[in-house]
Amino acid sequence: MTTRSPGRPRSEEAHAAILDASIALIREMGYDAVTMEAIAARAGVGKATVYRRWTSKELLVTEAVGRIVSTIPVPDTGSAEGDVLVFMRAATSMYRDPATSALLSGLVAAMARSERVAGAVRMGFVARWREGVRLVLRRGVARGELRADVDVELALDVLAGPAFYRYLMLGVVIDDRFTRAVVSTVLRGLASAR
Amino acid sequence: MTTRSPGRPRSEEAHAAILDASIALIREMGYDAVTMEAIAARAGVGKATVYRRWTSKELLVTEAVGRIVSTIPVPDTGSAEGDVLVFMRAATSMYRDPATSALLSGLVAAMARSERVAGAVRMGFVARWREGVRLVLRRGVARGELRADVDVELALDVLAGPAFYRYLMLGVVIDDRFTRAVVSTVLRGLASAR
Amino acid sequence: MTTRSPGRPRSEEAHAAILDASIALIREMGYDAVTMEAIAARAGVGKATVYRRWTSKELLVTEAVGRIVSTIPVPDTGSAEGDVLVFMRAATSMYRDPATSALLSGLVAAMARSERVAGAVRMGFVARWREGVRLVLRRGVARGELRADVDVELALDVLAGPAFYRYLMLGVVIDDRFTRAVVSTVLRGLASAR
Amino acid sequence: MTTRSPGRPRSEEAHAAILDASIALIREMGYDAVTMEAIAARAGVGKATVYRRWTSKELLVTEAVGRIVSTIPVPDTGSAEGDVLVFMRAATSMYRDPATSALLSGLVAAMARSERVAGAVRMGFVARWREGVRLVLRRGVARGELRADVDVELALDVLAGPAFYRYLMLGVVIDDRFTRAVVSTVLRGLASAR
DNA sequence: TCCTAAGCGAGACGGTACGTCCAGTCTTCGT
DNA sequence: ACGAAGACTGGACGTACCGTCTCGCTTAGGA
Hints:
The structure is a homotetramer. By secondary structure, chain A is mostly helical. Chain A folds into two domains: 11-53, Arc Repressor Mutant, subunit A; 60-190, Orthogonal Bundle (Tetracycline Repressor, domain 2). Chain A is built from nine helices and no strands. The first copy, chain A, has helices at 12-29, 36-43, 47-53, 57-68, 80-96, 98-113, 115-143, 152-170, 176-190. The radius of gyration of chain A is 20 Å and the shape is elongated. Chains in contact: A-B, C-D. Chains C and D meet through helix 6, helix 7, helix 8 and helix 9 of C and helix 6, helix 7, helix 8 and helix 9 of D. The structure holds a DNA duplex.
């Protein structure tokens, strides 16, 4: 029942080669130094083949990055704080991995330029991360660890924001001490009154 | 006693015209679409005249933006929460003003590219904002409103981060309700036990 | 009696469609602006189908043009000059017909690029034209109108060259007055002394 | 009194380097294989510098060729036939010199494509050649060698056309025997009756 | 009053990357 | 086994900016 368009189908090899080349070049030279020309050359592919799939460097890179970011299974450590920490560590590890950290600032700029890129990023790992943390926070409420009137969306922002700000604005390394401090400070604000 | 270099002095008119043109173009087209070529043309100035003063678009824009961002006198509303709110509102108003909001993402990218730009931004309004909030938080500790062992630097990140993240990553408008919710949630985490 | 072979009868249709499309596009856009891509699209045919039959644009166009150029029966007007004029008018009409005139310069370039194209053109209407004029000149010699020692091949060049040069090099319209003047001038040079 | 346009003047070195590179590449690879990219690279010049002066490959090449074609001083051998032969030999030497012969067919195509190129060529060596031959023919008329009612423009076409046609259409080498035969045949047609 | 130095607007310079187009070849499916 | 459709590699196209470099000119201070 699948409608099949005529003509030669797009090559999955080329597709993969382009994504691989993108990731490799980003790691080697950083986001800004990467050019479509170089990606095509590295992938052993004509430029038109790249443009046929991705209309901009940003969209291509967004998808390439999506490949790196792993999906985190929802944990159950017994406490809301422990569960949240798992997600926090997954997120902050992005700020330390050269493959993704070098990318983040360029991605932010690309999102501001293009609503398509912004949409792709938000529906990708941003949405996955938020969905995971949302679940463990709700579980914390259900268990009575967190106040019943907790504003979950706000909590997500207050958890994610500090490291994001610290890394991009202050240019400071995000270590585990900081991560734990953020979590404990925020969860204290959400905790149910004893 | 001032050593006076020979030759024609730099034109202050040109200087101002360049900064004005930069701001105008950023407002009109966004940070990324602005080119040095266009700035020079708009300012009615040769390109060399621009490069003689600023070696990169980022540095120029940083200075141009510095002109817009105002200095906030340290307030005293009677409560730490009230004082913090004053600073928070000054910061979040930047996310709503087209002149600065359109700029932020590009600036983040520029900071990642250039340590000079990063330094200029951090020592500019970032430092001023943090210094102000630092003062009111310390006053809150002194008054006994906040716990004595509060990690002030962490608190600054947790206050500033959420709106920054929300604006750049989620692309959502930062309204006053959100600002107040962040402040009250964070300060609850820092409050001294009854 | 019709053989019932499956999925084949397109062949001659495609062949004709391609030639028709070639001629139409040449008339519309001139030789150089025509692309194999456009020919295939206009003919409603895949590019491979075109390449399967003609390995280059030049060969295809050569054949297409061969269709237009008609064969001239050897005339007998009673005088060598009259006979030659018939052939000359056939030739110069090509310089006026948009279908062939727009083609000529491109064909010349293609002939220089490719010996195959050159061969095809020379053995086609060039040879036919020369053969015809050769005959009437020889008849003129036999009749005593022209000198016995006439260099016929040279005469062919001197007859054909002027209009060819005038059209391609000077970009001037070839009218019948010019044609008659060339013929009369040349034949005067070949005429037998009283 | 010469008005001087502002800004840095165009570099004459670059100008010459581009023309030299064009000529060298044409000799090495032929007209069609030459690319603007290669010309710029060979000249050690940016592509924009080429396009700033010549908007198309054809115009550039036309000018480059103009440099090769030499100006012929009007001869006086004592007879119209001798004078004409001097010009004919200058012209036909172009068909033998690889630097110009490889170029001619492409130039013809370019002239058909672009009125600017056509104009440049016609006003260049075409006009110079015709002017020269025109003079010696008129002198022949004045001396009584040629008929008083000679159509000089027609004579120019009949002289120039045969070799042009023979070279481009028949792809045959133009030797001196042919040149002399054309001249003597044509001048016989123009000669005054004894 | 002239001289020297540096600034000025203008725009050309050598480069790099862009995104488009076409050439000629190579699959895929449908008939 | 052929046909159309269309993707493939490859490479030139002409444009836009980059940051630097002349030009002829202005604007100052010091000789």
